[in-house]
Write a structure and sequence with these properties.
Layout: H1 2-8, H2 14-34, H3 67-130
Coiled coil: 74-119
Protein name: CCD17 protein
Region (Disordered): 39-69
Length: 149
């Protein structure tokens, strides 16, 4: 849920995503490990739990012979699949945001263009109304003498 929230709010830092994936993996391991330990609790008290053992440096059985290797591989693939799904969701959200921003910019430009066209129309109307009130142009005096009748 934390990872999805981070991605939906626009987060895309690979270091943070890796850290969230690591935390998710740890939580999954803890949930699997403590599923059988819940029986020791009584009325809000917690029975003392043994310290978790560190995984052995060398597996007790060769990989592929037991179900632990397959389960771990399956969990790893599942977590990678979730990470990729989250990344895909983040890309979709970013694409939608860009498309929304582009359409908003286009709408803004269209509105500005319509406003400018309206202003030009009003100015034309105004000049046409003012034209009859303008004084006729004053012509310079004729160069030649007036003609006799």
């Amino acid at each position: 849920a934390l990872r999805l929230s981070y991605l939906r709010s626009g987060g895309h830092d690979p270091a943070v995503l890796d850290q969230l994936l690591h935390l998710q993996l740890e939580a999954t391991v803890l949930e699997k490990g403590t599923a059988g330990l819940g029986r020791g609790r009584k009325m809000g008290t917690v029975a003392p739990q043994p310290a978790p053992e560190a995984p052995p440096a060398v597996p007790a059985e060769p990989p592929g012979t037991g179900t632990h290797g397959v389960d771990a591989a399956l969990r790893t693939v599942e977590l990678e699949n979730r990470r990729l799904e989250d990344e895909l969701l983040a890309l979709k959200v970013r694409r939608e945001r860009r498309a929304d921003a582009g359409s908003r910019a286009a709408q803004r430009h269209t509105a500005e263009l319509a406003q400018l066209q309206a202003e030009v129309g009003m100015l034309r109307c105004h000049t046409e109304q003012m034209r009859p009130w303008l004084h006729p142009p004053i012509l310079p005096p004729p160069i030649a003498p007036p003609l006799l009748p």
